[in-house]
Amino acid sequence: MSTSPSTSADRSARAPYVLTAPALALFVGVVLVPILMTALLTFHDWGQYKGIERVLILKNWREVLSDSYFYEVFARTFRMAALVTVLAILIGAPEAYILNRMRSPWRAIFLVVVLGPLLISVVARTLGWALLFGGTTGVANQALMKLGLTSGPIPFMFTEAGVVIALTHVLLPYMILSVWAALQRLDPQVENAAASLGASHFTILRRIVLPQIVPGILAGAIIVFALAASAFATPAIIGGRRLKVASTLAYDEFLNTLNWPLGATVAVLLLVALVLIIWGSNRLIESRYREVFR
Amino acid sequence: MNRNGPLALLFHTLFVIFSLAPLVVVCLVAFTPEAYLSLPTTNWSVRWFRAIADYPEFIRAFWQSVWLGAVSSAIAVAFAVPTALAMARYRFRGREAMMALFQSPLMIPHVVLGIAFLRFFSEIGLSGTFVGLVISHIVIIFPFAMRLTLASATGMNPAIEQAAISLGATDWVVLKRITLPLVMPGLVSGWALAFINSFDEVTMTVFIATPGTETLPVRMFLYIQDNIDPLVTSVSACVIVITVLALVVLDRIHGLEALLIGRGQGNR
Fold first, then answer.
1. How far apart are CA B68 and CA B194, in angstroms?
2. How many structural domains are present in chain A?
3. Which of A36, A197, B48, B105 has its CA 20 to 30 A from that of B153?
4. pLDDT tens digit sequence for B153-211
5. How far are the Cα atoms of A236, A243, B81, B95, B118 from residue B225, in angstroms, in the given order?
6. B26 touches B237 (CB < 8 A)
7. CB-based contact B45:B33 (threshold 8 Å)
C-alpha cells in the first residue's frame, strides 16, 4: 500500500483530520453557528406588533441586568442549585462509600438500583414527586404525619423546598457515579495498612479515604451544580408557573410571550454564568489537587 | 471487602427508599380504580392503562420517540466511529479542543441548545420538521455514542490491523473485517446509551417540537403542565417499566457500570 515513507507519513499526519472532519463539520454547523446566532439574537429588538427587529442594541441586556425581577430569578436558580449540590454531596458520597463496601451480589444489584433512575425519564420521576407531595393527600405528608414528625402538612408543591428535594433525587446518581469512580482508584492495601497500625474506622475514613475521594466529590459537585442550575422539567412541574428559575423563564419568554430576544438573553446569561462558575471552580480544584490528578 | 455497620445499612435502606419512592408511587397510582389521583387500597384496576388507547396523542408520540431515538442514535454512532478512531490512535494539534467541543453538549444547558436550535431551524426553514429533531438529537447524544466507541477503540491492538495490511488486505477489507468487528461492542452499547438519552430528552425538544412532532416526554410534560391525572400516571408507569426492562437487558449484556462510567468492554 504505502510506497514510500514520505507518503505514509503524510497519510498518518492527515488521517486524524480526515477522520474527525464529519463530526467537526456537524458540530461547527449545528452547534457553534446556532449558538452564535442566539448570541446575536440577544442584541435584536422586539415589539409586540413589529416582532423581531434585526438591529444591534443593548436593550435586552440592560433590562435583564437592571430589573430586580431577573435578579430574583437568577438568585433563586443558583441558590437552589447550591442547596441541591450540598445535599447531593451529603447523601451521595456516603452512599457511594457504602455501596463500594458491599459484598459481591448486593454490590452489583444495588449499583443498578442506585444508578438506574438516571436513565428513567425525568418527567416520570418528577411526576412521582408531584404525587408524593401533592397537597394534604400527598403520600410524603401522610407518612411524615403518621411518624409524628410534623403536626400539619408541609407545603412541598410550588415551593423551593419541594423543587430542591426533587432535583436532588434526579441528580444524585451523577454524584454517586463520580464518587464511585474515585473509590475504584483507591488502593485497599492503604486502608488495611492503616488498620493494622491501629487506626480506628473513623480515622481511616477521615485521614485515608476522604482526602483521596475529594476530587471525585468536587467533580461530581460541578456536574450536579451545572445540571441543577439549568434544570427545566423538574422546576417547571414542581415549582409551577409562579416559582420561576432561569430556564423556565426563558421558556416562557420564548413560547408564551414570544419575546425571543429577551428569552435568548436570559438563556445566554445562564450559559455565561455557568461557564464562568465551572471554569473558575475547575481552576481552583486543579491548583489545589494537582497532585491527585497527576 | 469489609462489611458495613448497622448505621451504614440503615442509611443505605433510607437511601434506597428515597430513591425508589417516586417511581413506586407512580406505578401504584396508575392502578387506581378512581377517576382521581389516589393510592389503590382494596381495588386495583387497569382502566387507566386501557384509557391510553383512547388518547392517540400518547401512542403517536411514543412511536415518534422510538423512531427519533433509533435514527439519531444510528447517525450519531456513524459520526462517532471515525472520530473515536482518530482520538484513540493519533495525537494531533487541536485534539483537546475537539474533544472539548464534542463533549460540550453535556455541559451546555439544554435550554440554551433548545433556543439555539429553535432560532437556527426557523432561519433555515427546518422548524417543526422531523429532520430538525434528528439533527438536534444527534448533537446531544453524540458524547454518549462517542464515549463507548472511544473506549472500544482505545482497547484495540493496532498490530492486528498492521498484520492484515502486511498480508495484503485493502483499506476497505481492513475496515470491514478487522476494525468494525473490534469496535462493535462499543458501537452497540454506544447506540443503546444514545437511544436512551434521546428517548428521555425533554428540555431541548420542548422548544423545537411542534404539535405534529412531539416526542413522548414532551407530550407527557405538556400534559402534566395542564393537569395531573391518573392517565398520565399510567403512561409514566409504562415508560418506567419499559426503561427498567431495557436496563436489565443492557446490564446483563454489558454491565450498567461499564455503560455509565464508560469503562469499555471491547478490550476483553
1. 11
2. 1
3. B105
4. 888 888 888 898 899 888 888 888 888 888 888 888 889 889 999 999 999 999 999 88
5. 8, 14, 40, 43, 21
6. yes
7. yes
CB contact under 8 A, A34 and B119: yes
Nearest chain B Cα distance for residue A98, angstroms:
7
Residue A259 φ then ψ, to 5°: -85, 80
With CB atoms and an 8 Å threshold, state whether A34 touches B117. Answer: yes
CATH number, position A72: 1.10.3720.10
Q: If you measure CA to CA, which chain A residue comes closest to B238?
A: A124
Residue-range domain boundaries for chain B: 56-261
Check B109 against A270: CB less than 8 A apart: yes
**A8 belongs to a structural domain:** no
What range defines the domain where residue A168 resides?
Answer: 67-119+155-293
Residue of B93, B107, B112 for testing the chain A interface, max A β-carbons within 10 Å: B112
| Closest Cα in chain A to B76 | A23
pTM metric for this prediction: 0.90
Predicted local distance difference test score (pLDDT) of residue B107: 86
Cell of A47: 415589539
Residue B262 has a pLDDT of: 52
Q: Identify the residue among A10, A131, A171, A196 best suited for mutation to test binding to B, counting B beta carbons within 10 A and taking the highest.
A: A131
